[in-house]
Amino acid sequence: MNMIRLFALLVKASVRSRMQYKFNFWLSTVLAAVVNATDFLLISIILWKFDRIQGWSLYEIGFLYATVMLSKALYRMFANDVHHLEKYLVSGDLDGLLIRPIPVLLALMSQNFRPMLGEWTQGTIILTVCIIQMLGTGQIGWIAIPLTALVIVTGAFILFAIGLGTATFGFWITRISDLQNLTEDAARTAVQYPMELYPVWLRTLLLTAVPVGMANYVPALYILRHAFGPWLLPGVMAFAALFLWLMFRFWRLGLSRYQSTGS
């Protein structure tokens, strides 16, 4: 509980620091919302023309798109600088975190708290519209709403685990931005759309080596299509817990190999 209170205080201080530049904060929020809206608008135009892609409707794809966007927003809100570990390794700023009387990962996560208001707004609007439409057609029931909230939280843990594992490689190779583009950005973009679009080898990769498909696609099979059975969501949660535990262990191994810059 002391660690939680300490983390809350550090986050509060980070928010106060960010709000010193209010114009920059609100401008970045608006730009993030516009970029995400334009991205989804393009696929929406295609779907209005062809109705379905590999059997997935516009509203089902919107569900996939919004859930992984909100999971990403939740992950980056509380652990944004895990994704930017490279700058700490290159500049030597990680040394300053090592001497703090709290775990390094906790100190890193509290450095730059980001509300991600643009992503939250955009994702919530898309998800709300899609769920209302599917409720109206009877495709899903009201139970889908709390299940979707659970999927978003579970997905955030999965994305955090992927980001943590990728960042950990930095303790050996330092420069990890290209690797992050592959394992985080490209992989997450891929699962914004149905995985039936991709060849078998890529689907296998997105469910195993970089299991971002477990964050939205697999749970959606049950919520939207009632596939596999009610055991699927607990199975995904168990997978998320195990995967996160393994990445924590990998992080500790990598941190033990860190060599200070001497600064």
From TrEMBL:
Domain of life: Bacteria
Keywords for this protein: Membrane, Transmembrane, Transmembrane helix
Name of the featured protein: ABC transporter permease
Record bears the keyword Acetylation: no
InterPro entries registered for this protein in UniProt: ABC-2_transporter-like
Organism of origin: Paenibacillus allorhizosphaerae
Transmembrane segments annotated in the record for this chain: 26-46, 58-77, 125-145, 151-173, 200-222, 228-248
Transferase among keywords: no
